[in-house]
Write a structure and sequence with these properties.
This protein has 129 residues and is of the alpha/beta class. The protein has five helices and five strands, in the order βαβααβαβαβ.
């Protein structure tokens, strides 16, 4: 039976990269299992969307960059991706329309707290990493 998952990734990958990887891996597994998945990157978790971040995680020996790219490809192709426009602006100094993230702007919904509440209220299961 398919369920609706809301997965929020707010952890800074520079502080706890393993937690970020686990969050993306769980989201990818939910997609693979055929569930309806919304993934929301917020706060310092938006660093996961910064070009070069996966290479930085791999340099620290936490996980291979190919694995991370594979997880992100699974999410781009099988889930609905969201990010906090305020977090991207304050943490990364970027904004919507610049195509400055690892996810193309057209594959990403730029949202804020109202959408976090809406998506989490509509979900059968909420996971936060």
């Amino acid at each position: 039976m398919s369920q609706k998952f809301f997965i929020k990734i707010a952890t800074d990958p520079d502080v706890d990269p393993v937690k970020c990887v686990v969050g993306m891996a769980c989201a990818a597994q939910a997609v693979t299992a055929g569930h309806d998945v919304d993934v929301f990157f917020a706060a310092a978790g938006v660093r996961n969307l910064n070009p070069g971040q996966f290479e930085k995680i791999a340099e620290n020996g936490d996980v291979a960059v190919d694995m991370l790219n594979g997880l992100m490809d699974k999410l781009v192709n099988g889930s609905k991706l969201h990010c906090s426009f305020g977090s991207v602006a304050s943490v990364l100094g970027k904004k919507e329309g610049e195509n400055g993230l690892v996810i193309p702007d057209e594959k990403l919904s730029w949202e804020g707290p109202p959408q976090v509440i809406e998506l989490s209220a509509a979900a059968d299961t909420v996971l936060v990493y």
